[in-house]
Amino acid sequence: MREIVNAGWEGFIDLSRELEEDLIEIGSTLPAWxxxxxxxxxxxxxRYRAALDSVPxxxxxxxxLVSTLNGVTGGCAVVRLGNIAQALGVGEQFLRLAxxxxxxxxxxxxxxxxxxxxxEIGVNLNAxxxxxxxxxxxxxxxxxxxxxxxxxxxTLLCVRPDPLGAGAxxxxxxxxxxxxxxxxxxALLADSAYSYGGFFDLSGVGEEYxxxxxxxxxxxxxxxxxxxxxxxxxxxxxxxHVHAARELADQMVAGQVSYTxxxxxxxxxxxxxxxxxxxxxxxxxxxVAPENRRLLxxxxxxxxxxxxxxxx
Length: 312
Ligand SMILES: O=C(O)CCC(=O)C(=O)O
Ligand SMILES: [Fe+2]
Prior knowledge:
CATH topology of the domain at 76-88 and 110-311: Double-stranded beta-helix
Order of helices and strands: EEHEEHHEHHEEEEEHHHEEEE
Bound molecules: 2-oxoglutaric acid, fe (ii) ion
Radius of gyration: 19 Å
Oligomer: single chain
CATH class of the domain at 76-88 and 110-311: Alpha Beta
Largest sheet: 7 strands, mixed
Number of strands: 14
CATH superfamily of the domain at 76-88 and 110-311: Clavaminate synthase-like
Helix content: 25-40%
Structural class: alpha+beta
Distance between the termini: 40 Å
C-alpha cells in the first residue's frame, strides 16, 4: 500500500492564501440553497456559480478541479479547505461554499429520499463494521452500484477525522485495475452475473439493475466499472465469476493510494473511473465520546448531459 500523505499523488488541490480569503468572504454571503426534488435547484446553482465567478482567482480552483477529475489519468481529487473551515467553522456557511465548489463540477443531489441533502456518515458502534457507518474496513466499491444510473461523482467532506488517527480513505483507479486483467477475466466481468444489495426509496439514479455486468463496454465517461467488493459474498454467484471479480479486487488493492482526510478536506471521486473505501477506524471507539467521533458529510453529483433531473 502507498500512503500518500507526503508523496507525489496528483489529486490534491491546494488553494493560495489569497483565494482562500476571497472564498471565506463569499462563504459568509452565499444565500441558503434550495432543492427541487432530490436536486439542488437551478436558481441556487446559478447564484452560487455567479458568486464564484466574481472571485478573480476562482480559475485557480476550477481548472485543476475539472482536470483532476476528468483529465486523461484523473478521476479523484482532495480539495483542501482546512483553512476555510478554520475561518468559517463547519456549519452552514462552510457547507454553502462547499456546495458552490461542487456546483462547478456538476449538480449536487441526494439519491436517498430519507436523508437530507448532505448525508451524515458518523460512527455507529453497533453497525456492521464493513458498512458506511461501521468501524471496520470498508472495501473498495462504487456508491449505488446496483442503480442503472449511479451518481457520476460521490463526495465526502471531512467535518471531524477519527480522533484515534485511523480511518484513512482508500482510493483506486478502477480502469487501470481492469487494464491489468487477463482477457478471459474481462470477458467474465462483462457478463450480467453480479448483484448486490437492496434498492428502495431512491431518486435520480434510474432503476434497480440486477443482475449487472461489472464491465458494461460503454465509453469511459459514460459507463462504470460496476464494482463493490461486497458482491463477492452474494449467494448464487458461480466460482468463475467470483474468481474474476476477486482478481479485479486484488488489482484495485495493488494500485491503491490511501489518505487520512483532515478537517475541511473534500474528497471528490469520479465514479466512472475510481473506486473508494475506508481503512478501519482506530481501536477503542467506545472510549471516544460520540460527539468527538469521526464525521463525514456525503453528497452526490449528477453531470449535466448524462442524466439531469429533467431526464428522470
Ligand atoms: O467512511 C468512509 O470514509 C467511506 C464511506 C463510504 O464510502 C460510504 O458510505 O459509501
Ligand atoms: Fe462509498
